[in-house]
């Protein structure tokens, strides 16, 4: 699988994560994005042995888009702190089932996920193991019973966008875990219509803000061509 590098310097590297591939090493899975990046760096710089690569955030396996890694331990610590403090701006584009009524809004819920469970769930505020999650959305387009949203995460809980959308009756297309499988379209069964469109962070040594944008996987143009044209016009 070819690696699409969006940004690279001595401290950071950002790539376009393909759908269906885990972000980082997990339960013995051999094909992961972090391994692809390590192999790329070893080959490009002729590095023997292990290559340091700091995993500072993740995208769910079926999600595509901008994925950032650190190339030094100092950069890893500083970037991880930015994600922890919420100073990294994360914007996603999603296609959901149904028509979202409001042009824009905020979704706030409490979310819980046990390590042994493949899914997360909305729980009562203050519940044991629950964490508050919040996102802001803007409607980009709607067509034929589908709505395209731009989503800005304020928090970054696992499966957050997927759960919050599904709990409001608008599951992300293709997301079988939360109510909308692709059905007969088996070729894209490992992908969902959720894309990390852009990421903005402070460079760990220079202090300047860097903003990257990532194009969509090819299946978006195959599945959502008319809707995607409206999204790009309004986005």
From TrEMBL:
InterPro entries: PsdUridine_synth_cat_dom_sf, PsdUridine_synth_RluA-like_CS, PsdUridine_synth_RsuA/RluA, RluA_PseudoU_synthase
Superkingdom of the source species: Bacteria
Pfam families reported in the protein's UniProt record: PseudoU_synth_2 (PF00849)
Keywords tagged on the record: Isomerase
A Gene Ontology BP annotation from the UniProt entry: RNA processing
One example GO MF annotation: pseudouridine synthase activity
Domain Pseudouridine synthase RsuA/RluA-like span(s) in chain numbering: 12-166
Family recorded in the similarity comment: Belongs to the pseudouridine synthase RluA family.
Identification of the protein by name: Pseudouridine synthase RsuA/RluA-like domain-containing protein
Source organism of the structure: Tuwongella immobilis
């Amino acid at each position: 699988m070819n690696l699409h590098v969006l940004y690279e310097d001595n401290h950071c590297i950002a790539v376009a994560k393909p759908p269906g591939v885990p972000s980082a090493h997990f339960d013995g899975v051999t094909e992961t994005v972090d391994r692809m990046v390590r192999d790329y760096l070893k080959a490009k710089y002729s590095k023997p042995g292990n290559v340091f690569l700091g995993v500072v955030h993740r995208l769910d396996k079926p999600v595509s888009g901008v994925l950032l890694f650190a190339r030094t331990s100092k950069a890893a610590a500083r970037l991880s702190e930015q994600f922890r403090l919420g100073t990294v701006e994360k914007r996603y584009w999603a296609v959901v089932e149904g028509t979202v009524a409001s042009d824009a809004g905020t979704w706030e819920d409490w979310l819980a996920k046990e390590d042994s469970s493949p899914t997360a769930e909305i729980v009562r505020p203050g519940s044991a193991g629950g964490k508050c999650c919040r996102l802001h959305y803007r409607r980009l387009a709607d067509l034929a019973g589908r709505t395209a949203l731009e989503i800005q995460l304020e928090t970054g809980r696992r499966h957050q966008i997927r759960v919050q959308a599904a709990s409001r009756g608008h599951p992300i297309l293709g997301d079988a875990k939360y109510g909308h499988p692709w059905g007969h379209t088996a070729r894209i069964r490992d992908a969902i219509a959720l894309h990390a469109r852009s990421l903005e962070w402070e460079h760990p040594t220079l202090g300047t803000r860097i903003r990257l944008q990532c194009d969509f996987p090819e299946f978006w143009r195959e599945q959502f061509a008319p809707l995607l044209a409206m999204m790009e016009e309004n986005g």
